[in-house]
Amino acid sequence: MEENQFLSGFVAVVGRPNVGKSTLINYIVRQKVSIVSDKAQTTRNRILCIYTDAAGQIVFLDTPGIHKPKHKLGEYMDAAAYQSLRDIDAVLFLVAGNEKKGPGDLFVAEKLNACKVPVFLLINKVDLLTKAEILQKITEYRSVYPFAGIIPVSARTGDNVATVMGELKKILPPGPQYFPEDMVTDQPERVLAAEIIREKLLLSLREEIPHAIAVYVDEMKKREKIRSIFGPPCMWNEIRKNGLLSVKTAVF
Ligand SMILES: Nc1nc2c(ncn2[C@@H]2O[C@H](COP(=O)(O)OP(=O)(O)OP(=O)(O)O)[C@@H](O)[C@H]2O)c(=O)[nH]1
């Protein structure tokens, strides 16, 4: 390969619900493009998140957590996750290091057998583990799949995320810049606004609402740096009543 050739490619981020896929991607692109909560299956759709630097461009596919579907919404989300395993250059398979390796993780590993590209295992949430526990996790997972690499990381603190980026750059092919360098996601602003509101609702209303909540933004008006967001009155009443959003977040 010629030196200084621009590298690019697509990388799917998979794992069972709640292991930290969205947190990792937000850290990499340094912007909140995917919402995070401690409720499983917060991410509903496949979201493209784009990292660009002088050496290359990596397009990450944030997928809904893969699990054995129990309902229609789950089935749809799993289909979105499997779809992202096609036409990609690498897979980042995340597991939560602070939890036991369970049937959920093995179920995802089984699905990876279908893909022919390098799969890196990221043992996430190592900020909650001792060094000895990290080593034990690495040993535990070694036999699960012929991983191209096993990397302990913390998506929350960013620990070792640079190593992941370095490994990806080693295997990405020379290629074009698919997206403009200042673009970090394929999601329109209105969808991002709705998602951030959904995240606040999920974080603040634990028992009161079902986790299958949907947020719809009726209208967004742009006035210089200010966006005004309009939604159904019942949603705003709920938000106001519970003090869910600061003015800065609701009108940004
Ligand atoms: N301590 C710690 N917590 C983390 C880390 N990464 C993620 N979390 C937390 O784990 C929870 C789930 O994180 P998400 O990023 O929403 O997980 P996800 O895999 O995208 O979840 P789904 O959308 O359900 O598939 C959140 O409460 C995060 O703050 C980490 O490195 N350390």
Automatic annotation (TrEMBL):
- Region of interest: G1: 15-22
Quick one: where's region G3?
62-65
Enumerate the Gene3D superfamilies for this protein: 3.30.300.20, P-loop containing nucleotide triphosphate hydrolases
Superkingdom is Bacteria
Q: Where is this region: G2?
A: 41-45
**Do you know which CDD domains this protein is assigned to?**
Era (cd04163)
Query: Which sites bind GTP?
Result: 15-22, 62-66, 124-127
Q: Which Pfam families match?
A: MMR_HSR1
What InterPro entries is this protein classified in?
G_ERA_dom, GTP-bd, GTPase_Era-like, KH_dom-like_a/b, P-loop_NTPase, Small_GTP-bd
Q: Where is this region: G5?
A: 153-155
Residue stretches making up the Era-type G domain = 7-174
Q: How does it sit in the membrane?
A: Peripheral membrane protein
Give the span(s) annotated as G4. Answer: 124-127
- Enumerate the UniProt keywords alphabetically: Cell membrane, Cytoplasm, GTP-binding, Membrane, Nucleotide-binding, Ribosome biogenesis, RNA-binding, rRNA-binding
> Where does the UniProt annotation locate this protein?
Cytoplasm; Cell membrane
Could you tell me which SUPFAM superfamilies the record lists for this protein?
P-loop containing nucleoside triphosphate hydrolases (SSF52540)
Q: What does this protein do?
A: An essential GTPase that binds both GDP and GTP, with rapid nucleotide exchange. Plays a role in 16S rRNA processing and 30S ribosomal subunit biogenesis and possibly also in cell cycle regulation and energy metabolism.
Subunit structure of this chain's protein: Monomer.
The UniProt similarity line reads: Belongs to the TRAFAC class TrmE-Era-EngA-EngB-Septin-like GTPase superfamily. Era GTPase family.
The record's listing under NCBIfam families reads: era (TIGR00436), PRK00089.1 (NF000908), small_GTP (TIGR00231)
What is the name of the protein in this document?
Answer: GTPase Era
Give the originating organism.
Megasphaera lornae
Source organism phylogeny = Bacteria, Bacillati, Bacillota, Negativicutes, Veillonellales
